[in-house]
Write a structure and sequence with these properties.
Layout (H helix, E strand, L loop, with lengths): L16 E3 L4 E6 L3 E2 L9 E5 L3 E3 L2 E4 L4 E10 L8 E11 L2 E4 L2 E6 L5 E2 L4 E3 L7 H13 L5 H13 L10 E2 L4 E6 L3 E3 L16 H9 L4 E4 L5 E4 L2 E4 L2 H10 L3 E2 L5 H12 L12 E2 L7 E5 L6 E14 L2 E17 L4 E6 L4 H13 L3 E7 L8 E2 L5 E2 L5 E6 L1
Helix pairs in contact: 1-2
Length: 400
């Protein structure tokens, strides 16, 4: 689980620390990289978006800069998958810079895979839904009895504006990944970043009371089953929430309509992302979310998402919102519901931490607290049957 930096207060400068090999760093690209671009750029850049913490001390703060290069790039062909090897070899903050030995260890919300040497390999274009449709059309066209059917399917594909699958690796600025140190890093740079400006929450006793008055669970509409756990409270105006998430790279989720369902189908067939993809509607105290936000990359199967519900009253002079956040990690067919559903990461505290770290990096957090909810039941599952594992606490963020 990514750390929620509640231990940031009082962080001291460390003149020299050694960060061991194997440490994982969560980074965000600040340049676009692509397997089909030749020659590759002279250098690529990224930024640390989760502080590296050990034994309650910050080793690397938010905002540390990384520089590297594209060591290998191969465009996708009919015979070969696309490949991309990114190597980051410099790290620094302000005037301090040092060498670093690392490899890419994992990709966030990506359709591509990473091997043990950090090599990113793309998808097999011939195995996507779109390619299989084309293969089926070609077979029908070669059969006199079914040639007219092939024309109908081809016409439907054109009417739905389905594009050919792009099997290349195209990562825009903002794509996130995990970097793993292959050698120890001696860091003599700053250990205070954006996160050091977070202040204690005002009136903490009242905050605990407020948190424990909130409902624990959302509910699905049809059938009406208990679903996601509420795990985040935002104390902010709607404009502050939207601005903070936009700065952190999140997008508004569109409503579930016929048009958005068609766009979802196109995204699945074309094996690509859908930044504004719809979410199923969940209810809190009988009310739908005021709005929903998400963060994806190049696949609709995986995305971070959060539903934001308006709550009565204010705190610290600002409106109160309660949220449920989970991470979609795949799509399966539900035998129980007879439809395709997203599967989530059952360790939902990971997604709570993701939201916190993103908003900290965006510089949007004035105060932060993690509040116990002793009455939250254990051994819960969502409306589609995924188990929900959590420490039960709600994080509260006062935004600015």
């Amino acid at each position: 689980m990514r750390f929620i930096a509640l231990i940031l207060i009082g962080a001291l400068r460390v003149w020299a620390v050694q960060i061991p090999a194997g440490t994982e760093l969560t980074i965000r690209l600040t340049d676009k990289v692509a397997s089909e671009v030749t020659p590759p750029p002279a250098s690529i850049h990224a930024v640390l978006i989760v502080p590296a913490i050990a034994d309650g001390k910050i080793l690397l703060p938010l905002g540390v800069q990384l520089t590297g290069e594209v060591k290998q790039a191969r465009a996708a062909t009919e015979q070969d998958k696309a490949q991309l090897l990114l190597v980051f070899n410099q790290i620094g903050m302000g005037s301090y810079h040092a060498g670093i030995s690392s490899i890419i260890g994992a990709l966030d919300n990506a359709r591509e895979k990473v091997d043990g040497d950090g090599l990113i390999t793309g998808i097999d274009g011939s195995e996507t839904y779109g390619s299989r449709i084309d293969q089926g059309i070609a077979k029908l066209q070669n059969n006199d009895k079914f040639a007219s059917l092939a024309g109908i399917i081809q016409g439907a594909k054109q009417a739905l504006k389905i594009k050919d699958v792009n099997a290349n690796i195209d990562f825009d600025a903002g794509v996130e990944m995990t970097l793993r140190l292959t050698k120890p890093l001696d860091w003599r740079g700053p250990v205070s970043g954006i996160e050091s400006k977070v202040m204690p929450f005002p009136n903490q006793e009242a905050l605990v009371t407020l948190v424990n008055r909130q409902p624990f669970r959302t509910a699905a509409e049809n059938p009406p089953r208990p679903s996601d756990i509420t795990n985040i409270m935002l104390v902010a105006t709607e404009a502050e929430i939207r601005a903070a998430f936009a700065k952190a790279g999140w997008s508004n989720s569109v409503r579930l309509t016929t048009q958005s369902k068609l766009e979802t189908a196109r995204a699945l067939i074309e094996d690509r992302g859908y930044r504004e993809g719809p979410m199923s509607v969940l209810f809190l105290d009988g009310q739908p979310p005021a709005f929903a936000l998400q963060k994806g990359n190049d696949t609709y199967a995986r995305r971070h998402h959060i539903r934001v519900f308006a709550r009565p009253g204010t705190f610290a002079g600002k409106p109160v919102w309660v949220c449920s956040s989970t991470h979609d990690v795949g799509i399966n067919f539900s035998d129980r519901d007879r439809t395709f559903i997203h599967k989530i990461d059952s360790d939902i505290d990971n997604e709570r931490a993701k939201v916190v770290n993103d908003l900290l990096f965006a510089g949007a957090v004035r105060s932060l607290a993690l509040v116990d909810r002793p009455e939250l039941p254990e051994n819960l599952s969502n409306a589609t049957g995924d188990p929900l594992h959590t420490d039960g606490r709600m994080v509260v963020l006062l935004l600015q």
